[in-house]
């Protein structure tokens, strides 16, 4: 065995202090949507639209975590998790998105945080995981600048309530899904299919993030961390044709660089005007916004599920002025030999390696990274060997990326519980724990036991074996990167399919 081969196969453990946790989101697990003064969110409204969600399902009951949270904290303790990433339901705390605070809603999160800390589990609080108060949507939602200001007010309310007990804050979860899937594609709440409105929403989400960072920085104690979570996947053209390469670049802009460049690159992506100039004049941008959006954060959360394989396709709308922001002349495809999950999602752990190393290469001042979501969807089988294989391979890819220089500090498995999976309803299950939605009984799956053992002894031994990313040698230059420099087999992208 050569020295190189030995370095690729000898066991590697994760470093001491590496954070192990699970993740959930409020609307997906809490239920109790009409309880203790909670106001309606855009997802409550969207779920009532005929055909919007599979089988007409909603998060009305979900996992009833609002009443069963003590049992769920017990499951985390049994798992050996040292951290729990959860989101706060904005309309549970501020029923109208602004104005009087609902103390009963705040008390729920106070009890949860206290129980977590008593159990030795560090809370990671996400302020926004897609459940905008409907009252703010009625005033324009994320299309309007005022919502960013209201988000900063809400962040201040939450810090006032939990700042003594919570040291890790995440402003946004996956602004791509909120802005583009929600306001551009229409597959998520609020169900709009707009051009300018979707791009404005993306900008105002980032602005709200920056404003919230400013408020939290003013209040934070020493050692507290503030971050943001983006969903990412490398975007790969299916052929080396100029049409497919440009399609991959457009997808990359829409779902990735639109967010990473203002956050970590200090500029708007250079090809925004070329790609979207016919549908928007970007009048929502104001002098000084970039400085607010780009305020330094202490960590980046990365949600990774798969790579995107894309090809050029006809535009849905012939008139470019009338196109939605999601109408890019791009189609995602599944490679013929691809390994897939129970949902048909392509399983490519090397894409996580490419994502982590690629971010480190592109942004020299990138803060430390936490993998804030990574998981496998299936039909809910208790002997979920597919999920075990997925987790093992992606943890291996994470460790390999760390060896290559990526500064990764933690891993949160999606998800602790089977839950309401947005437009898919309850058919897709991502949990380490099975939930019987009729009885609310929780049953740990085989993957729960596997993950518990891994957390106790986090060693990987098998290297990630890369499979071809394209049908031919394609050298994609990332916008803003000097000519001749590569960033993996293709630019990074966030998944166009909804992630969790």
UniProtKB/TrEMBL annotation:
Similarity comment: Belongs to the glycosyl hydrolase 1 family.
EC number(s) on file: 3.2.1.21
Record's protein name: Beta-glucosidase
Recorded catalytic activity of this chain's protein: Hydrolysis of terminal, non-reducing beta-D-glucosyl residues with release of beta-D-glucose
UniProt keyword list: Carbohydrate metabolism, Cellulose degradation, Glycosidase, Hydrolase, Polysaccharide degradation
UniProt-annotated stretches for the region Disordered: 479-500
Source taxon at top rank: Bacteria
Pfam families (UniProt xref): Glyco_hydro_1 (PF00232)
């Amino acid at each position: 065995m050569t020295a190189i081969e030995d370095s690729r196969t000898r066991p590697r453990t994760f470093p001491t202090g590496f954070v192990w946790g699970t993740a959930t989101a409020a609307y997906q697990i809490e239920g109790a949507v009409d309880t203790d003064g909670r106001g309606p969110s855009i997802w409550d409204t969207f779920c009532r639209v005929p055909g919007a969600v599979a089988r007409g399902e909603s998060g009305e009951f979900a996992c009833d975590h609002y009443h069963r949270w003590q049992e769920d904290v017990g499951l985390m303790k049994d798992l050996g998790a040292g951290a729990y990433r959860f989101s706060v339901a904005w309309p549970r705390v501020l029923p109208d998105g602004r104005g009087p605070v609902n103390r009963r809603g705040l008390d729920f999160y106070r009890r949860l945080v206290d129980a977590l800390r008593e159990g030795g589990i560090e809370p990671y609080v996400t302020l926004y995981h897609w459940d905008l108060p409907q009252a703010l949507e009625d005033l324009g939602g994320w299309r309007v600048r005022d919502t960013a200001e209201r988000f900063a007010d809400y962040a201040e309310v939450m810090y006032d309530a939990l700042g003594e007990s919570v040291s890790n804050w995440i402003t946004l979860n996956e602004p791509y899904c909120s802005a583009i899937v929600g306001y551009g594609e229409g597959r998520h709440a609020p169900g709009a299919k707009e051009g300018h409105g979707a791009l404005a929403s993306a900008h105002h989400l980032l602005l709200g993030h920056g404003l919230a960072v400013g408020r939290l920085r003013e209040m934070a104690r020493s050692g507290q961390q503030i971050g943001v979570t983006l969903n990412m996947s490398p975007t790969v053209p299916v052929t080396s044709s100029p049409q497919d390469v440009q399609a991959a670049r457009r997808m990359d802009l829409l779902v990735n660089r639109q967010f990473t460049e203002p956050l970590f690159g200090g500029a708007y992506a250079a090809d925004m005007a070329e790609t979207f100039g016919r549908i928007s004049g970007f009048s929502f941008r104001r002098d000084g916004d970039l400085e607010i959006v780009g305020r330094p954060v202490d960590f980046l959360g990365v949600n990774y599920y798969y790579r995107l394989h894309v090809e050029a396709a006809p535009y849905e709308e012939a008139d470019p002025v009338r196109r939605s922001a999601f109408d890019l002349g791009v189609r995602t495809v599944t490679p013929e030999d691809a390994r897939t999950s129970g949902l048909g999602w392509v399983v490519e752990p090397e894409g996580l390696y490419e994502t982590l190393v690629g971010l480190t290469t592109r942004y020299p001042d990138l803060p430390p990274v936490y993998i804030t979501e990574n998981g496998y969807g299936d039909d809910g089988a208790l002997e979920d060997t597919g999920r075990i294989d997925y987790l093992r391979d992606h943890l291996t890819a994470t460790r390999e990326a760390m060896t290559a220089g990526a500064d990764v500090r933690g891993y949160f498995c999606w998800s602790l519980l089977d839950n309401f999976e947005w437009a898919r309803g309850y058919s897709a299950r991502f949990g380490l724990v099975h939930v019987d939605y009729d009885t609310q009984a929780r049953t740990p799956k085989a993957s729960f036991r596997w993950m518990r053992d891994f957390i106790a002894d986090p060693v990987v031994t098998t290297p990630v074996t890369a499979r071809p990313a394209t049908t031919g040698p394609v050298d994609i230059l990332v916008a803003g990167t000097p000519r001749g420099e590569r960033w993996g087999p293709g630019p990074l992208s966030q998944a166009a399919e909804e992630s969790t």
